[in-house]
User: What shape does this take?
Amino acid sequence: MNETSVPNYQVRVRMAPSPTGFLHIGGARTALFNWLFAKHHNGTFILRIDDTDTARSTDESMHEIYDALKWLGINWDEQYVQSERKNIYDSHVEQLLASGNAYHCYCTPEELEEIRTQARADKQTRSYDRRCRHLTSEEVERFVTEGRKPTVRIKMPDTPILVEDLVLGSRNIDPDTLEDEVIVRSNGMPNYNLTSIVDDAEMQITHVIRGTEHLNNTPKQIAIANSLGLNLPQFAHIPLVLDDTGRKLSKRHHGDLVAVNRYREQGYLPEAMLNFVARLGWSYDDKQEIFSVDELIEKFDLERVGKSGSVFDIKKLEWLNSHYINQLDVVARTDAVIPFWEQEGLVDSTTKRDWLEEIVEAVGERLTTFQDIVPQTRYFFMDDFAYEPKAVKKWWGGSDEKKQKTCEILTNLGQILEEIPTFEIETIETAIWKYTDENNIKRVAAMQALRIALTGTSFGPSLFDIVVLLGRNEVLKRIPKAITHL
Ligand code: GLU
Assistant: This one.
């Protein structure tokens, strides 16, 4: 759809998750595209819970979906729950049965399996032979007496169905490929294809924006709508999200890698997640990667949604996340990392806030996720760390002679730090450089030797920050410990 043909009516879109598990990346993307489209056009975004599959739907999952959407900042204007709307679907089914556009099917699961096997052997395009379309009243009576519980099937038309799609273009669907879909299960619960298109009409949905995995459902829904004389929404199917091997991202194959909550728990920012998800299948000019929410709302349109699958690249998400983390001031970053420290038992309510902020300040731009704070700063809180073998080999020395030298340097540095009158960055820095320069010791060698003694690793914030943040007592405890280890 181009901008010049933007509807002059109220845009109404919906996201219709089935509460059968966590909100996954694909679901978040569907929610976001619908939400952005609604916001862009000053329209209405509806959340509709597709829970007529009672065997698989759970309240827990429904609440998880709400939480994940709220965390992302995707708010909805109206909300519906399909299991509360059964009478609406029932009346539409009645209408279809009365007009002869639907029929009861009494086939048992075993019979259906036989029919399917036969159809396959006969190379039929359809797997159900529509035998219940033409039951006599005697047959129906017999089945009812046998206690069979019928399903309801829709009669598919004999003429092609035109599917017009704002992303994929138009195509005609050969009616020979269409099954007489079951629209009501034998337990009386209506199925997705019926409830979805009935609700789309009832809720005056103008655009159905959803993943291409639903492409095969669209002609069925159009057929149902046509039989009921319902208005059709416009359809826009958005490309699949793929992993780096080209496989569709799915709960089954990728587990919680696709769960939105996983990213929340690991300390990703909703802004980063939204930005990342927006670019799964949509691009503005192929160059711009960073978009604020307002910018997304302003720039989003369906025209720039691609036809082919888009790859889920976790590196890009990490990059975006560190970008958004680095936008936050130290107070906000500290607020965000405290729960991760607390979870690990490193920090509690007695820990001094100022000191924590200083640690966060020292860590600087090194966080990809807030969770990274734990491995990067654990040594500030406890001294039971191991000395990284690689770092030890490189900076403390492989040979006895080099180790001897390191011990000497550490001993001298310990003494300097013990005697220094003020334990502050500038004085410490001056004293240490004076010692290295006067004794012809490479600055970096002394620094790294001390860093490993204090933190166990050769990477991290500025060493002088670490020394001051640990404080004199702690530093003077750790140096002899390292010397003993050597
Ligand atoms: N309940 C379906 C799903 O979760 C909704 C599909 C649709 O948008 O029509 O995939």
In short: The radius of gyration is 32 Å.
